[in-house]
Design a protein that fits this description.
It comes from Candidatus Moduliflexus flocculans. One of its GO terms (molecular function) is hydrolase activity. One of its GO terms (biological process) is lipid catabolic process. This is Patatin. The protein is built from 11 helices and 10 strands. The protein is α/β, with parallel strands linked by helices and 348 residues long. It has 2 domains: 253 residues, Cytosolic phospholipase A2 catalytic domain; 55 residues, no CATH class. Strands 1, 2, 4, 5, 7, 8, 9 and 10 form an 8-stranded mixed sheet that branches. It has a two-stranded parallel sheet with strand order 3-6. Helix 1 crosses helix 11 and helix 2 runs antiparallel to helix 5. The chain starts with 6 loop residues before the first strand and ends with a helix.
């Protein structure tokens, strides 16, 4: 009698879109299809780790009851920073789901994918502190601070491997279901193209450059504009500037901490068409949209999955954390459509 083929999942990055992974896992569980291993990147690592740790029902209950207007409580701004948020509150949330478990204690083999921000190397966690591994895998560059680990600084694995098919195979999967959340990202841009007059000049001179730099500076958040000005002062009056810079940063830190709740609560409550992200966030998230779409295709060319699932998430942005049920439903839909293909692959 032939041995049963091992089924592995490669859960891709996609921030809020990653709630779709929950819907896919639900369907596989309901259909009695055993999952033998999971590899995940970023949000895929979060959902995959929670499932492998046996905590998915707890996470689903948390989603049902969570008030997304209070999302600011999960964020901890830091100034000065290598990322806007320190990630300590996210770690606390992960600990409520994963406790102090180590990856090797999970019920099935699991891998979380991160990236070395200095070298660009993929870093795969298959053992060790589960919270640390997941926290590293989800550290979006510029948004969350990198995670120190064995003389490396680790960031979101999506910058090198958005959908970790190869990792799933390394865990022992014979059949790999890959979930790509980046395929439709290009349809939802965060940046509106600038309008150009028909008679606008195509040339570019020194005055254009000066004006452009000034225009860019005006789009920065107030505390960054002031930091730039403080840098100019520093060059002219070093001693005085250092003292003023330190005092200003302390005060700015207090202001950010007091303002973050209002900012993010309003952000979540607004209608999609009314949301205007700060320019820094807009640039970061749109860059991720573009990069991960291309990277996923390149990864699939080298390590093709047996089954590729692409949930219809074109209208879900990376930051739409207040729409978990819609994402879960989309995940369920795509998984049910693929059931005949999955069963055929396992039987073949």
């Amino acid at each position: 009698m032939n041995a049963r083929k091992k089924l592995g999942l490669a859960l891709g990055s996609g921030s809020a879109r990653g709630f779709a992974h929950i819907g896919i896992l639900r369907v596989l569980r309901e259909e009695g299809l055993p999952i033998d291993c999971i590899a995940g990147t970023s949000m895929g690592a979060i959902v995959g780790a929670v499932y492998a740790a046996g905590a998915l029902p707890q996470a689903e209950a948390m989603l049902e009851n969570f008030d997304w207007k209070n999302m600011a409580g999960l964020l901890d701004p830091q100034i000065p920073v290598s990322g806007v948020f320190g990630g300590r509150q996210i770690e606390k949330l992960l600990k409520t789901l994963l406790s102090d478990k180590r990856i090797e204690d999970f019920s099935i083999p699991f891998a979380a994918i991160a990236a070395d921000v200095a070298t660009g190397e993929e870093v795969m966690f298959t053992s060790g502190d589960a919270v640390k591994a997941v926290r590293a895998s989800m550290s979006i560059p510029g948004i969350f601070t990198p995670v120190p680990h064995e003389n490396r600084f680790l960031v979101d694995g999506g910058i090198v491997t958005p959908v970790p098919v190869r990792a799933a195979r390394m865990l022992g999967a014979d059949v790999v279901i890959a979930v790509n959340l980046a395929a439709e990202m290009s349809k939802r841009s965060y940046i509106k193209p600038p309008e150009r007059d028909d008679d606008e000049r195509s040339g570019f001179d020194a005055s254009d450059m000066v004006n452009s730099l000034r225009a860019v500076e005006t789009t920065l958040p107030p505390f960054l504009r002031e930091a730039i000005q403080k840098g100019r002062d520093f060059l002219e009056k070093p001693a005085q500037a250092v003292e003023e810079w330190f005092d200003d940063k302390v005060e700015r830190g207090r202001e950010v901490l007091s303002e973050r709740a209002t900012f993010f609560s309003d952000w979540v409550k607004k209608d999609d068409d009314d949301i205007e992200l700060p320019d820094m966030f807009r640039v970061i998230f749109n860059s991720i949209n573009i990069m991960q779409g291309y990277l996923a295709e390149a990864n699939f060319a080298q390590s093709p999955p047996d089954i590729l699932l692409v949930p219809d998430l074109a209208e879900i942005r990376l930051v739409d954390f207040n729409k978990p049920q819609e994402c879960i439903r989309k995940g369920e839909e795509i998984a049910r459509e693929a059931l005949p293909q999955i069963r055929a692959a396992l039987a073949g």
